[in-house]
Backbone:
């Protein structure tokens, strides 16, 4: 099965407020508050406007994170993406 | 209903109706000194009623109703009618009020700045607030504090303080007996006795105060102070708020602002005197 | 004048809010809350000259209803995300549909569970897709579960495990055991797309469902609100389509719901001042009982005619089930107490 691609929330839908180690994300569409920790905010930031799968995401995040040659980044990202989708913050494209 | 009374606590105007005279008479005594505006329409309705007509007289048991009802809530004996009224008032505010963000917390103020204490029942937040309120603090409330969503100010909800168990003797030793309600022994929440707030606290009930310190007290164990991060305070206060979800973005904005602008600490204390000392210490060192 | 009468008069615009004495508002607000219509009244009286504390309370109610409606529509969106990948289309029903279609009756309207209609053939797959997407069974006892599956027009309710919201998946709009069997296939295949992109029933079917829900299915719980929905939607549908009432009659015939639809129309005329076309303007002697049931609240918000309420409860079960089954059901329910 091909890696699913995801779509970010439309611009302005999310209000992101860092609160120390946590980040509070308010989704204006659902009026829900999500409390997340790194790397969730970075993933949301990196998805951008186009549909994005775990491989693309890994490449983009490599610019800011030091993955240190580990090869299990993609499965981890893919899991985080599906969690974000369950929260409704991203959508399966 | 046969008997009724109107009571204004902070911004909320209640009307309370009852099938019996006793709970209304008891409320009249407790709330005698509160400002009254008889023409003001009620925001919230509480009903104390008998499930069947004959139960007004035969083993009378008080059911709690009103705008919002908890299904399957157990009725209370008529001797605990005052507790039923208190529970009914709390319920209507907790489930119905939308103008402010409600925090299940006690609060006192000094110099226009508020100390907010949030915790489970048994944390001693009520007792601490009552005792501080007998000193040089203004009691804002022992059950709810209301946060103004736009400006971030704290508003008082100084209902009659609900003293429980050991707190009854501790407070009774300090106050005029005329300010205490009847002792209700062996209620589902233990022994309960109400304390009428001081007249100056009632007179100032519409005065906002700026949140200056957030405390999360825990009764028992060694005296300890632990600074709390913004994230943890946020999580705890969402849990302590009965209407956070219903307020949408206004609640989110109010709460992020509150935890960013207000220093927060967890405190443990073995007895009230130590608790009060910790409060005064933190107020002097950390309050904004 | 009773508080519920005043409340209905305010909605129907037969009475000016300015003319109310300050204390009249106690009863009006109490009744409106009991009918879950306080935010509806707040919208109706937006801009009216009100006592300041009432105006403030109403502003709170409008703001809170806007948040609640977003939350309700988000459930529809999450259901779409769960069902679209497996190719199941659904029709939104009741409150969520009115909100999605931006209808006047949605202003301030409370929306409870999400109600959706799917084709009967899709119901098992819909159930699986929802279970995979985080919904789970509300804990119920085996009798209730059996009863739902055998006799009702919907799956037993599902609740989302993290959002804590319920969804009712229907495959028709009345229980299978009901003497009336609406044409469910026609309901789905003739649905229309709302401004929000969700499918909703077409105008005539929507009015049929509203009447069925209120009169053929329900025990008139929430009757004033359902009738208010019916009144506003038929008024607005007729304003944009002069043939609406004819179509409504035709669809009501198709679904076997003429009695319910005609009664709803008469009651909306009697209670809210609806203007009906010729042919709809009749009288029925037993409408009186329905009006009395709708008006049965005192100014503390309590139901004042418990026997009448009970009669309507039994009536609603009578309509839903053949008599022997009714006896069996009430017996099982009774034993469980």
Residues:
């Amino acid at each position: 099965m091909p890696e699913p691609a995801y779509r970010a929330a439309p611009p302005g839908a999310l209000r992101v407020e860092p609160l120390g180690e946590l980040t509070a994300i308010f989704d204006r569409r659902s009026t829900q508050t999500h409390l997340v920790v790194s790397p969730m905010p970075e993933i949301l930031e990196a998805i951008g406007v186009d549909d994005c799968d775990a491989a693309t995401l890994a490449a983009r995040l490599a610019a800011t994170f030091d993955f240190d040659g580990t090869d299990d980044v993609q499965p981890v990202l893919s899991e985080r993406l599906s969690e974000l989708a369950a929260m409704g913050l991203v959508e399966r494209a | 209903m046969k008997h009724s009374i109107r009571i204004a606590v902070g911004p909320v105007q209640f009307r309370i109706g009852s099938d019996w005279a006793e709970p209304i008479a008891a409320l009249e005594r407790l709330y005698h000194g509160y400002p009254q505006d008889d023409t003001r329409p009620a925001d919230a309705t509480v009903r104390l009623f008998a499930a069947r007509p004959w139960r007004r007289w035969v083993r009378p048991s008080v059911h709690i109703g009103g705008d919002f009802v908890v299904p399957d809530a157990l009725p209370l004996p008529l001797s605990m009618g005052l507790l039923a009224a208190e529970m009914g008032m709390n319920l209507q505010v907790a489930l119905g009020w939308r103008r402010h963000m409600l925090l299940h917390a006690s609060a006192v103020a000094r110099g226009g700045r508020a100390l907010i204490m949030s915790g489970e029942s048994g944390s001693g937040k009520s007792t601490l607030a009552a005792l501080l309120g007998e000193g040089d603090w203004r009691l804002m409330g022992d059950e709810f504090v209301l946060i103004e969503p736009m400006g971030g100010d704290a508003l008082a909800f100084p209902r009659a303080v609900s003293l429980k168990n050991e707190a009854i003797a501790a407070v009774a030793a300090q106050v005029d007996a005329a300010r205490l309600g009847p002792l209700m022994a062996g209620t589902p929440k233990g022994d309960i006795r109400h304390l009428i707030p001081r007249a100056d606290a009632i007179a100032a009930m519409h005065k906002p105060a700026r949140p200056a310190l957030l405390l999360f007290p825990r009764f028992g164990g060694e005296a300890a102070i632990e600074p709390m991060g913004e994230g943890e305070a946020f999580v705890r206060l969402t849990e302590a708020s009965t209407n956070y979800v219903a307020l949408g973005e206004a609640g989110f904005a109010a709460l992020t602002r509150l935890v960013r602008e207000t220093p927060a600490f967890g405190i443990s204390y073995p007895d009230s005197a130590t608790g009060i000392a910790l409060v005064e210490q933190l107020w002097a060192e950390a309050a904004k | 004048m009773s508080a519920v009468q005043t409340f209905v008069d305010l909605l129907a615009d037969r009475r000016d809010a300015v003319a109310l004495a300050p204390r009249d508002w106690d009863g009006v607000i109490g009744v409106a809350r009991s009918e879950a219509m306080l935010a509806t009244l707040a919208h109706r009286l937006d801009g009216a000259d009100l006592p300041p504390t009432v105006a403030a309370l109403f502003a709170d109610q409008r703001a809170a209803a806007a948040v609640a409606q977003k939350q309700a529509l988000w459930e529809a969106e999450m259901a779409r995300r769960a069902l679209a990948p497996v190719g199941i289309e659904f029709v939104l029903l009741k409150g969520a549909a009115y909100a999605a279609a931006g209808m006047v009756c949605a202003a301030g309207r409370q929306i409870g569970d999400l109600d959706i209609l799917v084709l009967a053939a899709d119901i098992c797959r819909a159930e699986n897709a929802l279970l995979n997407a985080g919904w789970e069974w509300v804990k119920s006892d085996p009798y209730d579960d059996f009863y739902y599956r055998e006799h009702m027009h919907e799956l037993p309710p599902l609740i989302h495990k993290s959002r804590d919201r319920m969804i009712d998946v229907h495959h028709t709009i009345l229980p299978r055991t009901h003497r009336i069997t609406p044409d469910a296939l026609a309901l789905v295949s003739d649905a229309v797309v709302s401004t929000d992109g969700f499918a909703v029933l077409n105008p005539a079917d929507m009015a049929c469902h509203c009447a069925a829900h209120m009169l053929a299915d329900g025990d008139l719980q929430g009757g004033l609100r359902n009738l208010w929905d019916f009144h506003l939607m038929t008024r607005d549908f007729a304003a944009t389509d002069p043939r609406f009432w004819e179509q409504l009659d035709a669809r009501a015939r198709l679904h076997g719901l003429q009695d319910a639809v005609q009664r709803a129309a008469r009651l909306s005329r009697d209670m809210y001042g609806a203007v009906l076309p010729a042919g709809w303007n009749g009288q029925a002697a037993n409408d009186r009982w329905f009006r009395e049931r709708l008006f049965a609240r005192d100014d503390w918000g309590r139901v004042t005619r418990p026997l009448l309420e009970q009669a309507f409860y039994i009536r609603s079960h009578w309509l839903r089930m053949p008599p022997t089954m009714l006896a069996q059901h009430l017996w099982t329910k009774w034993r469980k107490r």
Observations:
- Chain B touches chain C at residues 1, 13, 15, 17, 39-43, 45, 47, 65, 67, 96-99, 246-248, 250 (CB under 8 Å).
- The radius of gyration of chain B is 19 Å.
- Chain B has a mean pLDDT of 95.
